[in-house]
Amino acid sequence: MAVITLTSAFASPGVTTTSIGLAIAWPRPVLLVEADPTGASGVLAGFFRGAWSYQTGLVELALASSGVADALPTVVQRIGDTSVSFLAGTRSHTQATGLRGLWDSLITALAELESSGQDVIVDAGRLGVAGSPEPLIAGADLTLLLTRSSLASLAGTKSWAETAREPGIGWRQPGALLIGESKPYRTSEVSKVIGLPVVAALPDDPVAAAVYHDGAAPPARFETSAYARGMLAVVEAIQANIAHSRSQLVEDGLR
Q1: pTM for the whole thing?
Q2: Are 35 and 42 in contact (CB under 8 A)?
Q3: First vs last Cα of the chain: how many Å apart?
């Protein structure tokens, strides 16, 4: 399928939570890359509640003498009996700036995983932070800018959306993912304000979201909840968006 990167411009709309949820719901083998430069793994400390200790991750990948593509399989971990693999991020924000030389090689290696039937979801954290993995944001097959629909969130998101779609230096395929539609603005209104297509919307449900960001026990009927169904709908929307983009490229090439 592709490399999908999630990021945000304002506050904490739930990039890590959504990244984990999408990975768990993904229908094919998928690699979850924790590239948030703020450190202190949200996956290990949150989803696994500190029960799963750091073993290897981006730092070891950057230091590997065999090259990124060859070393990548040696630094990922499988999440239980799922089809999700996990590449841990930095243990401290001070390590993030030392990874600048890794990102270009990593986006190339991640794109090559598609040939083996594996997709990639990247948690890139918040934009504008020192050590931000810019090549993973700009070079993904689809980069989703997460936002809520409050005026404050939209103001920050709009500014970064202008950069994302700037010809020549913007992102390869930018889009938005709305958290909490109609609180207060709808998808169409948000898209008009920020100038990006809203690929999908996810319900704002803190109790259900805590399953992913805090490792909380799933509430009753979690699997059939609006949040779980919304996560599956986001997966389908992402797949449809990428398929359409690739089809359009083929058509443009034939003209």
Answers
A1: 0.94
A2: no
A3: 25
CB neighbours of residue 220 within 10 Å: 6
Residue 212 region by backbone torsions, left for phi larger than 0, else alpha for psi between -120 and 50, else beta: alpha
DSSP label of 93: G
Strands across the sheet with 198-202, in order?
Answer: 77-78, 84-87, 30-34, 119-126, 3-8, 142-147, 174-179, 198-202
Q: According to CATH, what is the number of the domain 3-254?
A: 3.40.50.300
Given a contact cutoff of 8 angstroms between Cβ atoms, the answer to whether 34 and 88 are in contact is yes
Each domain of the chain, given as residue ranges in start order, spans: 3-254
Q: How many C-beta atoms surround the C-beta of residue 92 within 10 A?
A: 10
Q: What is the pLDDT of residues 148-170, one digit of tens each?
A: 989 889 999 999 999 999 988 89
User: Cα(242)–Cα(184) distance, rounded to whole angstroms?
Assistant: 28
Quick one: CA dihedral 170, 171, 175, 179, positive or negative?
negative
